[in-house]
Amino acid sequence: MKLSQLHIDTVSFIVPAMNEEATLETLFRGISEQMEILGHNFEVLFIDDGSSDRTWSEMERLATLNPGIVRSFRFRCNMGKADALSLGYEKAIGDVVITMDADLQDDPQEIPRFLSKLQEGYGIVTGHKKKRFDPWHKVLPSRVFNTILSKLVGVKLHDHNCGFKAYRREVAKQLPMYGEMHRMVPALASFEGYETAELIVQHHPRAFGKSKYGVKRILSGLFDMVTISFLKSYRNRPMHFFGRIALLAGFTAGGFLIAGLLTALLGHALSLFLTVIGMMSLMAALLSIGMGLQMELGVYRAMLEDHTVPVAQTAGEKSFQPRVHREDVSLVA
């Protein structure tokens, strides 16, 4: 469902960085030039994710030279991009939040297109690096990942993992960021009813530093797809998942225990083995039920603390005044 027209007064830019000392000033200058053309207020939130070079010194310098525009944050150690984005979402004050990588592969000149697309009613606009300047061993796994993820979650995108994204404020504030979930942002947003648009963006070769990509990220991506698939179907009803496992294990346990009893009556040597397998299956069933109940309790407590439902629009809510007399009701314009 498309959202209402967006009034943009301030745009917040979130830039996580690790060992990117040579790129920050150039990126900030590019953002500043575009914001001056557009006439919007803006802020830039730099987040140092455990750098070992002079990245933090550069962030401090930019914050000192640009008070009221640049804010910089430094983690004590490398926490990962999801935690950096989570901090940025929390601190951002803009009507729109834009995330960009610090390596200069994202082009600030694309910013007006992102803002224009948001105005069409989307909750998120994400970039699509159609022509990439990355090695094949990075591009190929990325394409496989995007194809599988699109089918799993029903959000058809070419580039789920593109770091260049624009969000409406309410979307950014609502997204849970942990682990490697920054790669699943469109999927997480879709669970709350927000639509994502995709824009083909220019992708520049990396000019400084080196890529943080490796085999570890491929493996973590596979695990994250399992997580997001589970969240899609069972995030509010985990007992349905564990209950099915318990039911299967329970039937298996019953079958093995009956078989063990019958073979024992016949004096067969397999009776002990079948009985042990049956008892193990029964324990698995009970454990699954226990895990399901525990997760249901967690969901219930979370709902009590913050029970929000995704209402997109209202009519008559702001001006509502309760009427006492039934004859006041009007059904004709």
UniProtKB/TrEMBL annotation:
The chain crosses the membrane at residues 241-266, 272-293. One of its GO terms (molecular function) is undecaprenyl-phosphate 4-deoxy-4-formamido-L-arabinose transferase activity. GO terms for biological process: lipopolysaccharide biosynthetic process. Residues 12-174 form the Glycosyltransferase 2-like domain. Keywords: Cell membrane, Glycosyltransferase, Lipopolysaccharide biosynthesis, Membrane, Transferase, Transmembrane, Transmembrane helix. One of its GO terms (cellular component) is plasma membrane. It comes from the Bacteria. The keyword Glycoprotein does not apply. Gene3D superfamilies: Spore Coat Polysaccharide Biosynthesis Protein SpsA, Chain A (3.90.550.10). This is Glycosyltransferase family 2 protein. It comes from Roseibacillus ishigakijimensis.
